[in-house]
Specification:
It holds the Pfam family PaaA_PaaC. The protein is mainly alpha-helical and 340 residues long. It is built from 14 helices and 2 strands. The chain binds fe (ii) ion (FE2) (2 copies).
Length: 340
């Protein structure tokens, strides 16, 4: 914790001062903050936003792939894709649970998404046009997610870091299944290879943008790094991803659509071309190819699920009533026995 943060959030009471000291010590030791620990309001707010946006991304991210479940080319492909989409739903649920421990209930977080007050990853606003897109999404989008998320397993907020451990294991299965789809296509007929190349061409740029704006345009990054939430900057992670994908693309027999991509001996990394940040801003602001469709579908699914939520509430109330009746009955019996 740096001096300016203390100035921005003066600890008013003695209890808060002790809380702040404890928080600073935990961060300095690179240890973990747990839900009951005192934490600065800005830390809580940043994490609530980050974890809930991550949850929203997992849930919205089910749509482009769910779209292909009925059209998967074989029973095996269909069952793998179903398992993958189901994993993403699970990721959303762990993350909503982690976000809730910061104090905002899940229905409120969900409401923020439905009313357009919360964002989700811009990548899910692109259409999945062909079966090869299932490969490109798994290989590139889940691949970028792994690069981003492995360091988050060490995030200072305990419930977030722990949720990320399981999520990352599943993401690495997702990336491999995407790779395998592309590998089969790129070793199939010329048309199949072309379909795989076309999918990679469309998803590569947006996948690189998943790491967020360049470091110079990412004002919150530094604070997140000081709080041990983020461990590497957007550009560092993007570079790591490019370096990882080049040899994988070669092994696939596909090209990455960047004429400026070349090995830089001096830096020990691949140089890559400029990204289209105007496109990124357009998609993030809601004007991407599928933003409207994704939100309409989410609102529709939420409305269609109303009966499930109502049934769950009614069931919980019934169980609570039964438990209360049983307690009353036991107490009555006890009183009778004592009285007798
Ligand atoms: Fe996921
Ligand atoms: Fe995934």
């Amino acid at each position: 914790m740096t001096a300016p943060d203390r100035l921005a959030e003066p600890a008013a009471s003695e209890e808060e001062r002790a809380g702040q000291d404890h928080f600073d010590r935990i961060i300095a030791e690179d240890s973990r903050i747990e839900p009951r620990d005192w934490m600065p309001a800005a830390y809580r707010k940043t994490l609530t936003r980050q974890v809930s946006q991550h949850a929203h991304s997992e849930i919205i991210g089910m749509q482009p792939e769910a779209n292909w479940i009925t059209r998967a080319p074989s029973l095996k492909r269909k069952s793998i894709l179903m398992a993958k989409v189901q994993d993403e739903a699970g990721h959303g649920l762990y993350l909503y649970s982690a976000a809730e421990t910061l104090g905002t209930p899940r229905h409120e977080l969900n409401q923020q998404l439905l009313e357009g007050r919360a964002k989700y990853s811009s990548i899910f606003n692109y259409p999945a046009r062909t079966w090869a897109d299932m490969g490109a999404i798994g290989w590139l989008v889940d691949g970028a997610a792994i690069c981003n998320q492995v360091p988050l397993c060490r995030a200072s907020y305990g419930p977030y870091g722990r949720a990320m451990v399981r999520i990352c294991k599943e993401e690495s299965f997702h990336q491999r299944q995407g790779w395998e789809i592309l590998y089969e296509l790129s070793h199939g007929t010329p048309e199949q290879k072309q379909m795989a190349q076309d999918a990679v061409n469309r998803f590569y740029g947006p996948a690189l943008q998943m790491f967020g704006p360049p470091d110079g345009d990412s004002p919150h990054s530094q604070q997140s790094m000081a709080w041990n939430i983020k461990r590497f900057s957007n550009d560092e992670l993007r570079q790591r991803f490019v370096d990882m994908m080049v040899p994988q693309a070669e092994a696939l027999g596909l090209t990455l659509p960047d004429p400026d991509l070349k090995w830089n001996e001096e830096r020990g990394h691949y140089d890559y071309g400029a990204l289209d940040w105007n496109e990124f801003k357009t998609v993030l602001s809601g004007a991407g190819p599928c933003n409207v469709q994704r939100m309409q579908r989410r609102r529709q699914a939420h409305a269609e699920g109303a009966w499930v939520r109502e049934a769950a509430v009614a069931y919980a109330a019934k169980m609570a009533e039964r438990a209360a009746e049983q307690t009353e009955q036991t107490e009555r019996t006890d009183r009778q026995l004592i009285g007798a």
